[in-house]
Specification:
With about 300 residues, this protein is mostly helical. The chain contains 11 helices and no strands.
């Protein structure tokens, strides 16, 4: 029962990721991607600090803290690149293709984590069938990018792929830190380091533009101002909980399925950019995920 709950939580978190990315993008369009990131991180710190106070006696979420390597305190730096890549990819090619690229990157790096055991993940043998399933998913991306009616834009495709690779890397990185410090502490430290990094970057590289973008914040709907930060807290805390408990390849696939389905809905409702090619490409990608599931089940029976 607990395993099924972790699987369901991974799927829901994937859907929340798509919603978070679109909320952050809309906020960034109204202000700037830097200001959107700064405010989202600040909201995240407030929410997570409140949760740590309210749930301080919960030994699962706030366990006794153990020592950890100094570099584990800077996981939020990944987020700066992820948010930037997502912003440009969603605005250029739409939510569904952007999330499909991120999904492919997550699946690819999930397999690599299982293969190498990076960040303390359990090493697993990767069969040819799994690589074949990844190829099927890639075919789905090709269908979406070439047949959806938009121009083929390789730079944004690479940025979307990089966002997915960094997202899964950050999730595993933070979940490893959470083993020593607890999910809530790890999540809060993630947004603290991200906030510090973005403030330094913004006010050194573009101070006047950043101040001008801050002046536009009062005109932005309140749900966009706080939504990205609240949803980010959900994503970080939930992934910190479930990733250590299920194989990385499963978490990658479940997160991916949630992202794909949610992004199709968002493209239809918000951007009105739905096309049959996006649906077909998403189905092909999910077929690739299912093939990977079958390969894993077959491998488990052999053991």
């Amino acid at each position: 029962m607990a395993v099924m709950f972790n699987y369901l939580l991974s799927f829901i978190t994937g859907a929340v990721i798509s919603l978070m990315v679109v909320a952050n993008t809309q906020f960034g369009v109204a202000t700037s991607t830097e200001v959107s990131t700064i405010i989202n991180q600040a909201v995240g710190i407030i929410v997570l600090t409140l949760l740590m106070v309210i749930l301080r006696k919960n030994r699962k979420l706030c366990p006794e803290r153990k020592k950890s390597h100094w570099y584990m305190y800077f996981g939020g730096i990944f987020g700066l690149f992820i948010l930037t890549f997502n912003y440009y990819t969603v605005t250029a090619v739409g939510a569904t293709l952007a999330m499909a690229l991120a999904v492919f990157g997550q699946s690819l790096v999930g397999l690599i984590f299982d293969l190498t055991g990076l960040f303390g993940m359990e090493k697993k043998r990767i069969t040819g069938e799994k690589w074949c399933s990844l190829a099927v998913s890639f075919a789905g991306i090709l269908v979406m990018s070439i047949l959806s009616g938009g121009a083929f834009r390789p730079l944004y495709l690479l940025m979307g792929l990089a966002a997915g690779v960094l997202t899964m890397t950050q999730m595993v990185y933070n979940s490893t830190f959470a083993k020593a410090k607890g999910p809530l502490f790890s999540a809060r430290q993630n947004v603290i380091s991200g906030l510090i990094g973005m403030v330094i970057f913004s006010f050194i590289t573009k101070p006047s533009e950043t101040m001008g973008a801050f002046r536009a914040v009062p005109s932005v709907p309140f749900f966009l101002i706080v939504g990205g930060g609240v949803l980010a807290c959900w994503v970080v805390v939930c992934t910190n909980i479930v990733i250590p408990k299920i194989p990385a390849v499963y978490s990658a696939l479940l997160l991916s399925a949630g992202q794909l389905i949610a992004s199709l809905i968002l493209d239809t409702v918000i951007y009105s950019t739905f096309t049959p090619a996006l649906l077909i490409g998403s189905i092909i990608m999910m077929a690739g995920m299912f093939l990977s599931f079958l390969a894993d089940r077959k491998e488990a029976k052999r053991q």
